[in-house]
Design brief:
Number of domains: 1
Helix content: 40-55%
Distance between the termini: 31 Å
Shape: globular
Bound molecules: adenosine-5'-triphosphate, magnesium ion
Strand order of the largest sheet: 6-7-8-3-9-10
CATH superfamily: P-loop containing nucleotide triphosphate hydrolases
CATH architecture: 3-Layer(aba) Sandwich
Structural class: alpha/beta
Radius of gyration: 19 Å
Oligomer: single chain
CATH class: Alpha Beta
């Protein structure tokens, strides 16, 4: 990670849903700088505003106030062309991989669509090689899966397939919103290791969203703690987890017995 290369710079981001008595400030005056090749975790309880913030960064939700600069310029998402260009650079995987796919498409179609999305014209053999390479990156065997429908795969296999798509699309930024919450502990660590590999091999910036400080500590360079729509603490992962300053961070850490014992925190 290079701290001089700021990729996403957000200033005073705020998102308010509804009006009057129904008003919810889901994100409140959030500021950050994410760098190229950095893994950032956003940690907070349910309802703290993590997904809302992720959708704002993705450009799927407009901000009520504040602004985002991308690669040093104000982000513009007005035209279809602007959005298409931005979404080439920024991709997301979500908690439930099944919800992001057309369930009537087999695995090979899900992967060939990535090739089409990139506008590549490849021969059948070249496509096959590309899909095989992406599957082997996530320890899946293309030959065993290509003819299957999503419902014939396990949650862990499906999530790895999502990562295979990211490997093929190689965006500059990946937002992973609770990507491991629906898989078992073994698949969880495999998926985290794959995210680390994507960063190491492709210098991808990864925004990892979780309610689990232990996972955040394992993968990230930088951690932001989110409470009720605000970043209450942020900095290098070691500082935030081993020397937490904010009451809410301490509370989150004390809820994870393993970190508590291993690092002997007060
Ligand atoms: N489209 C919406 N309309 C109205 N309120 C919303 C909308 N989306 C989110 N909210 C509210 O904004 C707040 C933050 O929600 P958000 O989904 O961002 O939380 P989260 O941190 O992702 O939670 P979880 O860990 O459960 O996924 C919540 O109070 C939620 O009810
Ligand atoms: Mg969420």
């Amino acid at each position: 990670m290079n701290r001089d290369n700021v990729l996403i710079d957000a200033k005073h981001l705020t998102k308010v849903f509804g009006y009057g008595l129904q008003k919810t400030t889901a994100v409140h005056d959030v500021n950050f700088q994410f760098h190229e090749g950095e893994i950032i975790s956003i940690v907070g309880e349910s309802g703290s505003g993590k997904t809302t913030l992720a959708k704002m960064i993705m450009g799927l939700l407009g901000e009520t106030s504040g602004e985002i600069e991308y690669k040093g310029k104000p982000r513009k998402l007005r035209s279809h062309k602007d959005r298409k260009q931005y979404w080439k650079d920024i991709q997301a995987i979500f908690q439930d991989p099944f919800s992001s796919f057309n369930i009537f498409h087999k695995v090979d179609k899900l992967l060939t669509d990535c090739i089409k999305l990139q506008g590549l014209t490849l021969s059948k053999e070249q496509q096959f090689e590309k899909m095989k390479e992406a599957c082997s990156f996530v320890n899946l065997k293309f030959e065993e899966l290509y003819n299957k429908y999503p419902f014939e795969l396990s949650g862990g296999q499906m999530q790895r397939l999502m990562i295979a798509r990211i490997f093929m699309l190689h965006p500059k930024v990946l937002i992973a919103d609770e990507p491991t919450s629906m898989v078992d502990a073994c698949s969880r660590s495999t998926i985290l290791d794959m995210l680390l590999k994507l960063r190491d091999e492709n210098n991808m910036t990864i925004i990892f969203i979780t309610h689990d400080v232990g996972l955040a500590y394992y993968v990230s360079d930088t951690i932001y703690i989110m409470e009720k729509g605000q970043f209450v603490e942020g900095g290098p992962a070691e500082d935030v987890i081993l020397r937490p300053r904010h009451r809410y961070t301490r509370q989150l850490i004390s809820d994870v017995p393993k970190i508590h014992e291993e690092w002997n925190l007060a």
